[in-house]
Amino acid sequence: MDIYLLEAIINGILLGGVLALLALGLNLIFGVIDVVWISYADIVMCGMYGVYFLYAQYNVPLPLACLIAIFGAACLGILVHKLIIAPVLGAPPLNQLLATGGLLFFLQSFATLLFGTDFRNIGVRLPVLEVATMYVSFARLIAFGVALVGAVALYFFLKKTYLGTAIRAIAQDREIVGLMGIDQRRLYLVVSAIGGALAGLAACLLALQYDVHPFIGNTFGPVIFIICVLGGLGNMLGGFFASFIISLIIAIGGYYSSTELSYVLAFSFFIVLMFIRPRGLFTP
Amino acid sequence: MSTTRILMLIGAAILIALPAFAPAYFLHLLIQILIWAFIYTAWSLMGRFGFVSFGHGAFMGLGAYIPALLWTFWGVTPWLGIPLAVAAAILLAVIVGYPCFARRVVGHYFALVTLALSQVVLLSLTAARDVTGGSLGFTQKAVGHSWYALQFPEKGYFYGIAVLLWLVGLLVWQRIDRGISREALEAIGEDEDAAAAVGINVMREKMRVTIISAALTALGGAIYGQYFMYLNPETVSGITVSLQIVFAAIAGGVYSMFGPSVGALLTLALTEGLRVWFGTEFIGAANTIYGILLVLCIIFMPQGVVGALQGLKLKRTPSGRPAERQTVIS
User: Fold this and answer.
1) What is the CATH number of the domain that holds B134?
2) Residue range A163-181: average pLDDT?
3) Using the beta-carbon criterion (under 8 Å), do B247 and A87 form an inter-chain contact?
4) Considering the domain boundaries, does residue A281 fall inside one?
5) How many CB atoms lie within 10 A of CB A183?
6) CATH code at A84?
7) Which of B13, B83, B228, B328 is 20 to 30 A from A178, alpha carbon to alpha carbon?
8) Per-residue pLDDT averaged across A70-93, rounded?
9) C-beta separation of B250 from B63 below 8 A
10) Can you say whether the dihedral through the CA atoms of B138, B141, B145, B150 is positive or negative?
11) Residues B10-22: tens digit of each pLDDT
12) Widest pairwise Cα distance in chain B
């Protein structure tokens, strides 16, 4: 096999890890609250700016900067729920979609207002590993590892803790959960915070690899949605696998043509698959 | 003569007389408002029945780019290029719409499939940077005043074209609104199975309104391209434009004929006003406020400005018909 193709495939799998993290967050929110956050990728953008300013401007050590960014993103998640989602919970689904779409406009423009449209890099130069004449970025390797650990941690949280069980229960049956003595509104806040924190974690990992600018959410956002829909909205395991399918398409497509065309390929693949399996790849 | 008719006549007179005394800047704004009003109306043809498409950026992108590229690189007149663009949009609508409707891709899923579609067109336009200039955009070959190239440096001509376009949009809206299709589409929007059970050809009705909507959007994009001459993938296609269309239409109100036009007027007046107010010093300030207003509008006025006004009027007269539908979609 072509060594460069193999390199592209490895990088694709590594990118898939971070996308999987975001897909998990979005799916968790959808599964429990039944709302799609169109602006989810823009929360990642906020987190990236957080890391950038803390680390590159105010010289906070990187791990601490990341922790603060994750915490900040979790708070942002709660804020989004309180201010925007809660008032439209009873509204038709598309109004909810549009409300978070308005948030997308707001976050992108507000970031432009505050920080300008410059591309900013946190300036961490991690070594590039050479494995059997292939080059693998260390930053991506870390991102992949941390994303996997995050996903596994989320899994155990949902399976083993009381709160996690309650979250899974509410995703299965909204009506009954209230009767079991579980406070829905509190759970919604917890889930929003977890969703925000996952976005914050992804932001830390992406800040190592990409420049941050106000519209970076537009690069990831649509990809995350198609991953979630492909895996079946709310289906976490499906979303997890779909992340790797899509990131591999993007990586391999990028190897044979340009980056844009590889995304075109991924989106087209998604559209065609929706016709074959309208409820997602893993939903019969 | 009824008061509505008199009001309409006065409105028409003002529209005709405007270019004679309005300053060029004002006319420039009006042309934009009319073109966008047309596109928003085209979107609402589908949107009002709950078929919320995030893919109209794709149709607009095709409409804007095809005639512009044909003219600039091969000298093909827009009189041929525009019909070709509309045909391409119809083809795309059929290719994506038919399987969508056949496989019952609805609601969230429909919105996100069409979102992917608008990204496909955006990225394809960007990727073909050898001809389109990629994300830097490109400017059409200018030849000055020419009917053949459909280029007019004087604003008056495009004002006339934009008014005509807008009227065509309203006419199409009215035809569908008064036809039997409207009842059928409303039934489909509420419950597809029930609609099919009472003998409505669900597929035919949905395809028809989708094709009309896509074709008109492409036409609007083509006129937009002819007027501005400069095209950029980000300003005529992709998720941003698709969301802009959806928002403005819903902010104005998708259930009445003038709703989307009011949406165009309000959003452009707002962004332009904010832009002038803040100047170039605070890039993003205008859109920040715009974003906040959008969220507030969706939360507190989901039926749009026109819908809210009608709701008020109905409340005052108890004998009046109840507002037909208060929500955007179920």
Assistant:
1) 1.10.3470
2) 81
3) no
4) no
5) 12
6) 1.10.3470
7) B328
8) 90
9) no
10) negative
11) 888 888 777 777 7
12) 63
Neighbouring residues of B75: CB distance < 8 A, sequence distance ≥ 6: none
Q: What percent of chain B stands above pLDDT 70?
A: 94
Domain-located, residue B213: yes
Tens digits of per-residue pLDDT, A37-80? 889 999 999 999 999 999 988 888 989 999 999 999 999 999 99
Confirm whether A21 is domain-assigned.
yes
Alpha-carbon distance values, A185 to A78, A83, A84 (Å): 11, 13, 14
**Interchain contact A256–B (C-beta under 8 A):** no
Q: Which domain holds residue A243?
A: 3-276
Q: Which residues contact B318 (CB under 8 A, 6 or more apart)?
A: none
A108 touches chain B (CB under 8 A): yes
Indicate yes or no: CB of A105 within 8 angstroms of CB of B291. Answer: yes
Structural domain containing residue B175: 25-316
A280 and A235 Cβ atoms separated by less than 8 Å: yes
Cα separation, A45 vs A106, whole angstroms: 12
The pTM of the full predicted model, rounded to 2 decimals, is: 0.87
Q: Which residue has the higher pLDDT, B268 or A93?
A: B268
Distance of CA B263 to the CA centre of its chain: 10
Residues facing B138 on adjacent strands: B231
Q: What interface predicted TM-score (ipTM) does this complex get? A: 0.84
Contact check, Cβ <8 Å, A105/B327: no
Q: Which residue of chain A has the CA closest to B134?
A: A260
**Measured on CA atoms in the order A228, A230, A233, A235, is the torsion positive or negative?**
negative
Hey, are the CB atoms on B288 and A113 less than 8 Å from each other?
A: yes
User: What total number of domains does chain A contain?
Assistant: 1
Q: Which of B122, B126, B282, B299 to mutate to test the interface with A (most CBs of A within 10 A)?
A: B299
